[in-house]
Each structure stands twice: as C-alpha cells, then as structure tokens.
Amino acid sequence: VSRGMDVISKGPSPRPRLRTMIYDRTGEFASAARVRAALGCPTAIAATRIDPLRGVDASVELGDDCAD
After folding, report:
1. Cα(60)–Cα(68) distance, rounded to whole angstroms?
2. Full pLDDT tens readout for the chain, 68 residues
3. Hey, how many other C-beta atoms are within 10 angstroms of the C-beta on 13?
4. CA-based nearest residue to 39, from 21, 64, 16, 66
5. Residues facing 61 on adjacent strands
6. Bridging pattern class, strands 58-61 and 45-48
7. What is the DSSP string of 12-52?
C-alpha cells in the first residue's frame, strides 16, 4: 500500500542505524511527519534537513527499530 507516497529509490544506508530517521527535504515538516505516521514506527525520528537537489519531499534511513 503506497499511502500516497512513491518510493523513488532504495539502497543501503551510508551506515547502519539503530533508529530510523525521516528527513524533511523541503522545509515542510508535515511531509516528514506524514511519512513517520505511514511507517507505523513510533520510535522513528523526524527532522528537517533541507536538500533541494534530491527532488523529494522526504527521505528515510531505515533503522533496526523499524526494520520489521
């Protein structure tokens, strides 16, 4: 179920993570909050890290806490 989101790409994280990080890439924090809610992982951390070159609203680095 896409829940209104598109996966643009997937691959390994630059480094293994214990906690999932969801980054708002546009300055609209609500995007990262919606992704966190859709993941259903209450321990995920949402943060703003603007990067207009990525061309996405939010990106996720999946950690061990939400891997299932």
Report:
1. 15
2. 456 667 777 777 778 889 999 999 999 999 888 888 988 888 999 999 999 888 888 988 888 998 77
3. 12
4. 66
5. 21
6. unpaired
7. --SS--SS-EEEESSS-HHHHHHHHHHHT-TT-EEEE---G
